[in-house]
Amino acid sequence: MTDSADLRNRLSKALRNGHAADLDHMLSDERDFIPDLDSLRSAAVLIAITDRPDPGVILVQRPDHMRNHPGQVAFPGGKIDPEDKDAVHAALREAEEEVSLDPHEVDIIGATDRYHSGSGYNIQPIVGVIPPDLPLVPSPDEVEDWFEAPLEFVLNPKNQSAHIGEWRGARRKYYQINWKNRRIWGITAGILVNLSKRLDWSA
Questions:
Q1: Domains identified in the chain, total number
Q2: What pLDDT band is residue 4 in, cutting at 50, 70 and 90?
Q3: pTM
Q4: Paired sense of beta strands 182-185 and 170-179, if any
Q5: 3-state secondary structure the chain
Q6: Which pLDDT tens digit goes with each residue over 118-154?
Q7: In the sheet that 170-179 helps form, which strands lie side by side, from edge to edge?
Q8: Is 202 domain-assigned?
């Protein structure tokens, strides 16, 4: 359990001081499968952490009809549009569009490690703290459902299992986190694995 100040301080310290070069080789990424990193489209996601004694993280379930990553669990987020000022603005805009999260309710802590995806995106995760139990409403065109998973659970390395799969003719490593009936895997799990290493949540 943690209080509000402790949560923000721990997150802020990790994002401010935790980007040490000696962690880079440990981070999950898909850049080995990307022939040209400059070809990636810029995107941003919001890691919205709830301000409660046992913090959670907000995740969404994508509809099966989506063109990209149908049916998968994801963070609220999407492409950075030309009118977006920066990644923070894009992440907040997408979260508002997808689950009606008021940007004014988000206390931005900072950016954590980028994730280069084999599906063609250079993803900037933005960490923010939000009040608990906000009346979030999923947009039916983009979100099938949303849920809050315990932060301690998803950041615990014991709950992060590594797997090998085949995609576009190549064998690839990916992470998976199973919480209740939710399968969190691929990009979303990779970002959580990276965040857990930056925060050293098991310490």
A1: 1
A2: confident
A3: 0.91
A4: antiparallel
A5: CCCHHHHHHHHHHHHHHCCCHHHHHHCCCCHHHCCCHHHCEEEEEEEEEECCCCCEEEEEECCCCCCCCCCCEECCEEECCCCCCCHHHHHHHHHHHHHCCCHHHCEEEEECCCEEECCCEEEEEEEEEECCCCCCCCCCCCCCEEEEEEHHHHCCHHHCEEEEEEECCEEEEEEEEEECCEEEEHHHHHHHHHHHHHHCCCC
A6: 888 999 999 999 999 999 999 988 899 999 999 999 9
A7: 161-167, 170-179, 182-185
A8: no
Q: What is the pLDDT of residue 170?
A: 63
pLDDT mean over 39-52: 95
What CA–CA distance (Å, rounded) separates 59 from 4?
Answer: 21
Q: In this structure, is the dihedral angle defined by the CA atoms of residues 113, 18, 189 and 3, taken in order, positive or negative? A: negative
Establish if 49 belongs to a structural domain.
yes
pLDDT in tens, 46-97: 999 999 999 999 999 988 665 665 678 999 999 999 999 999 999 999 999 9
Torsion of CA 18, 155, 105, 138, to 10 degrees: 140
For residue 80, the domain's CATH number is 3.90.79.10
